[in-house]
Amino acid sequence: MRVLIVEDEPGLVEFLRLELELSGVEVDVAMDGETALERARSEPYDLLLVDIVLPGMSGVDLCREVRRFSNVPIMMLTARGAVADRVGGLDAGADDYLVKPFAIEELWARIRAIRRRYEVNGAPFRFGEATVHLDAHRVVYRGQEVDLTAREYDLLLYLLRNVNRTCSRQELLERVWGFQAPGDTNVVDVYIGYLRQKLDPERRYIKTVRGQGYRLEVEET
Questions:
Q1: Containing H/E element for 4?
Q2: What positions does the domain Response regulatory occupy (predicted)?
Q3: Is the model more confident about 49 or about 120?
Q4: In order of start, what are the domains of the chain with their CATH numbers?
């Protein structure tokens, strides 16, 4: 597991680094948002731990920029307890937040929860007759490997990471394509159609929620 800590408080950085490295985690550190953004663009990480208050670019802005090109899990670290700050981070694309000061046990519990959601342990995700091997970026349908374009795979990945939750077209545009577009654009509908054709021709799992968007619906076990 490789983690990027984005934090400008030296004491907390060393505490987190020590705790993570003792558990076998590879740790990189960025003390400001701009440096973190460059590293996130060029290096593969399994998790970003991001403070909201940073020199220059804020943690919320960093999160929003990272979401333009990556679905890497992001946990916000903040001393602020206000609901608006927490909501701002989540709306920018963060997966979770942790208010400082916190116990290391809670941090690990939240990391484990994120890892389960993102399947970063390599366990395949199955729905219907499709199997997605997230560690190898492979998709198999009815025993045959399926050739997805990069955009199709990114869209599938976002639906997987939000399984059983309705994602609006605008949300999918922002998180998968990385831009905002008029509400009448049909690019999302077209790519949903591609995924259905390749993985769910009977439309049993990739559901249309009329007037809202799309949902990958999988029975939880």
A1: strand 2-6
A2: 2-115
A3: 49
A4: 2-119 (3.40.50.2300), 125-216 (1.10.10.10)
